[in-house]
Design brief:
With 336 residues, the chain is an alpha/beta fold. It folds into two domains: 176 residues, NAD(P)-binding Rossmann-like Domain (Rossmann fold, 3-Layer(aba) Sandwich), CATH 3.40.50.720; 149 residues, N-(1-d-carboxylethyl)-l-norvaline Dehydrogenase, domain 2 (Orthogonal Bundle). Helices cover 54% and strands 12% of the residues. Helix 7 links the parallel strand 9 and strand 10. Helix 8 runs parallel beside helix 11 and helix 9 packs antiparallel against helix 11. The protein is globular. The structure holds nicotinamide-adenine-dinucleotide (NAD).
Length: 336
């Protein structure tokens, strides 16, 4: 049986992030068994050690094995990473939990940044409910997979209730170019990663309209961080978490990245595409859109005002135009 000194690692979802993390772990310490929904991806990883669909241009370690049988991911592993969008976590993993195949000591690390729109639960809440007997850790922060997969310097947050669990996870992740920092604020670390997707859509929308002024970006991102902090604190997070990697760091990386799915959603909307055609083009609608609607509902219940997020939803739904929204946003901001 593997000990914490010699962990064996499982991963659910060999998509963009999952493949990059799995490969990082294999080059760092140990073998990884990864589940993937797409059988063609599984075949390619096992046969050719590449994943051209989700992580093109990277040669993967032979120590990464892929499977379409999710039970194998939990068989004898001491750490399991979850790297699928929030709404797929429950249907993918619940059968394994119900079958009693998860060892109580296995650390479950959630990396999804989203809300399951069917249950209203965040990805980490879903994880904690699915695995009530396991230590659960939230990984978040500025971690664009295509970058750290190519050795670009990256620092992420690991949040959990015990330092020992966080140490177990950091040991399989930390390399010269990929580092982890610890936090006890699981709520704040998750909400930072989740809420910034909303504002990344917005920046994509404005950039797509050609409103690329640095002055505007600076005021926009400042107000976005203020709104994230306000709703986050009302939901139980610590304010200082948002001023660090999981808040400001991730907001900057995602909003300014040409590779962000959420930002790209905004760009497509600015070109006049509707949500149905965007879903068809992108395969899966980026999580920020669902998060935006849910965050506004929660804000209303908690009596928190999010004028920027509300304005973005109006623009997305065609109730306001982007230019008009920007100038009323600046006017109201100055008049406050
Ligand atoms: N890509 C990044 O740089 C990055 C960074 C940080 C966090 N994240 C978060 O990681 C999560 C995954 O993002 P990604 O960019 O890797 O996505 P992706 O689109 O590259 O991969 C999606 C994954 O979901 C799987 N999937 C698709 N349909 C499914 C279904 N019906 N049932 C189960 N699984 C299904 C895919 O096979 C794939 O493994 C998201 O929550 C995202 O916010 C991504």
């Amino acid at each position: 049986m593997p000990s914490s000194d010699n962990p064996s690692v499982g991963l659910v979802g060999l998509g963009n992030l999952g493949t990059a993390i799995a490969n990082l772990v294999t080059t760092n310490c140990c073998e990884v068994i990864g589940w993937e929904f797409d059988a063609a991806v599984v075949e390619e990883i096992n046969g050719q050690h590449t994943n051209t669909r989700f992580l093109p241009g990277i040669v993967l370690s032979p120590s990464l094995r892929a499977t379409t049988d999710v039970r194998q991911v939990f068989d004898g592993t001491s750490i399991v990473f979850l790297a699928i969008p929030a709404r797929f976590i429950r249907p993918t993993v619940q059968p394994v939990v119900k079958a009693g195949l998860v060892r109580p000591n296995t650390v479950i690390v959630n990396m999804a940044k989203g809300i399951d729109v069917d249950t209203g639960l965040t990805a980490f809440q879903t994880t904690e409910r699915l695995f009530p007997d396991n230590p659960c850790v939230m990984l978040s922060g500025p971690s664009i997979a295509n970058e750290f997969a190519r050795g670009m310097p990256t620092v992420v947050m690991l949040a959990g209730s015990s330092n020992a669990d966080l140490m177990r996870v950091s040991r399989v992740l930390d390399t010269r170019h990929f580092r982890t920092r610890f936090s006890r604020d699981t709520v704040g670390v998750e909400l930072g990663g989740l809420l910034k997707n909303i504002y990344a859509i917005g920046l994509g929308l404005f950039d797509g309209k050609g409103i690329t002024s640095l002055n505007f970006r600076a005021v926009y991102l400042t107000i976005a961080l203020e709104e994230m902090t306000r709703i986050g604190v009302a939901m139980g997070a610590q304010a200082e978490t948002f001023a660090y990697l999981a808040g400001m760091g991730d907001l900057l990386a995602t909003s300014l990245s040409g590779q962000s799915h959420n930002r790209h959603l905004g760009e497509l909307l600015s070109q006049g595409s509707d949500l149905a055609s965007i879903q068809q083009e992108m395969g899966v609608l980026p999580e920020g859109y669902g998060t935006l609607r849910i965050a506004l509902n929660i804000a209303e219940k908690l009596h928190v005002s999010l004028p920027l997020a509300k304005g973005l939803l109006d623009v997305i739904n065609g109730r306001a135009d982007a230019e008009g929204f920007i100038f009323s946003f600046i006017r109201d901001f100055v008049e406050d």
